[in-house]
Specification:
With 355 residues, this protein is mostly helical. The chain has helices spanning 16-29, 41-44, 49-52, 55-72, 89-98, 103-107, 110-116, 125-139, 153-169, 171-176, 235-244, 263-275, 280-287, 292-318, 321-350, and strands at residues 3-8, 34-39, 80-83, 145-147, 181-185, 188-192, 198-200. Strand 1 (3-8), helix 1 and strand 2 form a beta-alpha-beta unit. Bound molecules: adenosine-5'-triphosphate and magnesium ion (MG).
Length: 355
């Protein structure tokens, strides 16, 4: 049976990329799947303390991300919404995955290189092993589908590699305990405990780019606030940021092929397409040949129309932190039951004695 899992870090400045690339697509998936949506607070502390901001910021951001989930239409009653640190099985499974994943696999992760920057000696060990914790987040529920932005593709491939190695290494034991499903691995048949999770990535906003630099993804951690549209920005701020967005000086092309060498134009067209739930072709049909002086105001109006109800709802929900906390508590209790079921099996598979 399909199970959907995904998460957002409570690192502040929730933005349009998080919404269009991830959260909004989660809403669609909850119609016909069981879904678990997590505020991954243990990932938030992998960067320098000056970046994640300390305990007061972490609490505030955790509640804000939860409010954003709810305001966007995530149903926390039908599905599960919780903060990661409440379910200690994630960290327990991450330790086991630290011992399954190879140094060489993690050395290839481009996000670590980006986030660690030049001063790699000074990066936290947690930033390096973060993808193992992410694999644990997903596999603690044996989730089959993970909707994320394109920047997470490499981490999901690593998750599959970890699942595959675990299944292969312990296949005999998994079979002996009757915990596996028979799967093909190369030309062998093995008993698999973990599924090979499918990434769910796509659409015109799978990778929303910075408004200041069309070659960099829009990010919470970008020091320039003009680089991103925050979900809580007011209408004037959204309009100003779109007006100031970097572009070239050509009018929009008459077909999507013409967007290829124009990252900034391509980004704005992609955002417009995602906001109207359509594709770039249809945006070009309407705006091909137009100047940015026409397209940008139209995009600003559309962004304000789609985002301001969410911002208003976020503010309304955030005003009642007791309500937000009760959602996380309830979700955490339900998630713990599911994760503990998996971990009991994993401990047996590994040979850890338990009652
Ligand atoms: P940070 O800079 O702290 O890593 P982030 O903006 O990358 O913040 P995350 O919490 O790491 O946000 O990611 C949450 C989800 O949003 C993930 O599914 C990620 O793939 C998606 N996402 C992040 N940035 C973008 C983007 N620019 N376009 C589309 N999806 C994105
Ligand atoms: Mg990120």
């Amino acid at each position: 049976e399909p199970l959907v899992f995904s998460g957002v870090q409570p690192t502040g400045n929730l933005h349009l990329g998080n919404y269009l690339g991830a959260i909004r697509r989660w809403v669609a998936l909850q119609e016909s799947n069981n879904c678990i949506y997590c505020v991954v607070d243990q990932h938030a502390i992998t960067q320098a303390l000056s970046v994640w901001g300390g305990p007061a910021e972490l609490m505030r951001n955790t509640r804000e991300v939860t409010a954003a989930f709810l305001a966007s239409g995530i149903d926390a009653k039908k599905h599960i919404v919780f903060n990661q640190s409440r379910v200690h099985q994630h960290a327990e499974l991450a330790w086991i995955f630290n011992c399954v994943a190879r140094m060489g696999w993690l050395n290839r992760m481009t996000q670590f290189k980006d986030k660690a920057g030049k001063d790699r000696e000074n990066a936290s060990v947690g930033l390096f092993t973060y993808p193992n914790l992410m694999a644990a987040d997903i596999l603690a529920y044996r989730a089959t589908h993970v909707p994320v932005g394109e920047d997470q593709k490499q981490h999901l491939e690593l998750t599959r590699d970890i699942a595959q190695k675990f299944n292969t290494d312990f296949s005999d034991r998994i079979a002996e305990l009757g915990l596996g499903v028979e799967t093909q691995s190369g030309d062998e048949t093995i008993a698999s405990f973990f599924p090979l999770t499918e990434p769910v990535i796509g659409g015109p906003a799978a990778r929303v780019m910075s408004l200041r630099d069309g070659t960099k993804k829009m990010s919470k951690s970008d020091p320039s606030d003009l680089s991103r549209i925050n979900l809580i920005d007011d209408a004037d701020t959204i309009s100003k940021k779109i007006r100031k967005a970097k572009t070239d000086s050509e009018p929009l092309p008459s077909d999507v092929e013409g967007l290829k060498e124009r990252p900034e134009a391509d980004n704005l067209v992609g955002i417009y397409a995602a906001l109207i739930d359509s594709d770039k072709e249809s945006v070009i049909r309407d705006f091909g040949g137009q100047q940015f002086s026409v397209f940008k105001p139209a995009l600003a109006d559309l962004a304000v129309e789609k985002l301001s109800p969410i911002a208003a709802e976020m503010r309304r929900i955030s005003a009642d932190s007791g309500f937000v906390d009760s959602i996380l508590k309830d979700g955490g209790e339900r998630a713990s039951v599911l994760a503990e079921k998996t971990l009991r099996n994993v401990r047996d598979i590994m040979g850890f004695l338990q009652d």
